[in-house]
Amino acid sequence: MLNAQNFMSNADLHDLSTLEQQFKKDPTKLLNTKYVLTNEHNKLYLSLVAKTKDGFSQEQIESFGGQAHVSVNGLAHLKLPLSKINKLKVLEDIEFASLSRKLKPCLDKALFDTHADSVHLGLGNLPQGYDGENILIGVTDWGFDYSSPVFYDSLLQETRILAAWDQYKLSGPSPDNFDYGTEFDTPNELNSVGSDTANIYSYSTHGTHVASIAGGSSVGTAYKGIAPGVQFLFVTFLVDEGAVLDAWEWMYQKSVEEGKRLVINMSWGLYHLGSLDGNSVLSTAISAYTDLGVVFVNSGGNNGNVNFHLKHTFESDTIASRIQFYSYSANPNMWGQSIHSWGEVGETFSNALEIKNTSGQVVAQTPYYSTQNTDTYIDTFLVNEIDTIWYNISADNMHPLNGRPHMRLRVKCTSSAYRVMFKSAANSGTVHNWNVTELTNDVGNWGMPFSAYGTGSMSGDNENGISEPSCAEDVISVAAYASGWVTPTGVTTGGAMASFSSQGPRYDGLMKPDIAAPGVSIGAAISSYTDASFSSVESIEFNTRTYHFAKLSGTSMASPIVAGVAALLLQAKPELSATEVKQILLSTAREDNKTGDLPAEGDPKWGHGKVDAMAALREALELGLSQSNEASSFKVYPNPVRNKLYLDQLHNMSMKAILKDFSGKSREIEIVNGSIDCTEYSAGMYLIEFKHKGQTRQLTFIKH
């Protein structure tokens, strides 16, 4: 049995002891557990993340066959042979360590809505057009299609993927300074392998769609990415926070070798990873890399329409709420619900379960377990007649990450004949609780409601719902809304907040999310290797393969839009610090009739408003905002157009204008009574340039 260590939580100490016992009994069964284990050369390794002290020595880990990958500020990914996990008790110079948790994933109109199309063309008196050239976007995800033409240059001659690291692929060679996975860093290697390997998400497409939004080429479609000139770094990472720490270090080293600025997009997150208050290992790493110039962008989460959060300020009282369960028939990996509770420093609280039948009668109950004295792992069950309800509890009176009292209560109830009630008591202090589904493969990531059931019980809310690591102070946390557009009758529509977009603030009061971007029905590329289902909206042929495009929704789609805008900023002004990039994006975010007037500190739904690529570029280049904002008030409709195009502020006015196509050819045309006859134009994108009130105006439209 491991000795208790002051650098680990009680939950992790219990899990380590359980692993040690299971390894001695039958090590062959361990690969199907919830723990992050890898089999390398017929030896099982356990993954941990750690904060190390100044005197930490990698040789100490290596002396008993372990591996240590130390990145910025002493943050480390440790891999220990399972047969040697008892060596943890003799490790020195460790400030904090925990078992790696498993991680899960959280254009056509979006270009117009964010004004990125205007930035591509160099409108608004920008000195040139910007597309993200010479900037790297790193994407940590699953389901990359290395062969997709959207990741090629505009002439479809050369791939823009600089390198990819598939941490699941065992054939090697692994990257320098790492000893697992396979790196592809030449076009021939990328083309020959085609895509990343099947993993816990099978042959996914999430990563391809996300990267396509951030910087995909249009390849003749309407689905052009925000920064189509960037180069990419792709990491298909093990569902393991230690592995993602390695991914960030690999990307950072690549950017240093290339001498290019780096933006990292993360369209994933968890609620039972870290402390949800910016003190986790990944949050600390983000801050350290931010200081080195890396810009981090993260989806805020998709639990905005679920009352999965329960908050109460205690005055020697007790609360009760029903735990709603995800359907056991809806997912073959369904285990149960996990309640994560965080209190205030210096306070304690107690939690319990109460089981009621459909008539509201109590048929079983647990004792109250207190954070003050529950220092061992509780794993037991309740029985009513022939039915069993399983539960387990771990707690810390002062968690090593932040000194707060913390409890994890997991419960499994497969019978629909019962109502599982969560009960909590304390003398004082505020306690936050989250109800999150857990699967047997340990990647459940969606909330389920707390609801009232019976006299005196209470319901949950959808607040404080930003996941890890999007809650990190230095990350740009992104909410999602539906793109806005102008209808054929000239009415501006759309632009409302997506119901699924998670709301802030962080439970300690820090305002999150930071900004909002389009995330509803975003069209982008789909992996040609995927076995996931999708509805194709367009397809093209390239190198004898068919490549589809589809529309997906989520804050996963909103995050890469902001990552693409960050790349445009860094191309325009590469000397900007990562903090300055974030400040510019937030200070230039726009408000409209959907956002309303937002407070200076930000809003728990919208952050600081809707991302505005043009306004951000003008601010970065110190061109001022007034002319850009005035020009953006002009609208053309319908867009795309087949016959007559209308300019909404010109009405009955007639004047000459210059029409430019995307190849740069121009000619003089007439605006007649505020409209242009486009019937004879060839299909493509056009720019109109005209004088209005003494200033030159430029607008774009697409001819079908």
Average of pLDDT: 87
Per CATH, the class of the largest domain reads Alpha Beta
The CATH homology group name of the largest domain: Peptidase S8/S53 domain
Oligomeric description of these chains: single chain
Secondary structure class reads alpha+beta
What is the count of DSSP helices, taking H or I runs of 4+ residues? 12
- State the major sheet: 10 strands, antiparallel
CATH level 3 topology of the largest domain:
Rossmann fold
CATH hierarchy: architecture of the largest domain: 3-Layer(aba) Sandwich
Return Rg in Å: 27 Å
Q: How would the global form be characterised?
A: globular
Instruction: Give unreliable regions as ranges.
Output: 625-632
- Strand portion, in percent? 25-35%
Terminal CA distance reads 70 Å
Considering DSSP H and I runs of 4 or more, what fraction of the residues is helical?
10-25%
Count the beta strands.
35
How many domains make up the coordinates?
Answer: 4
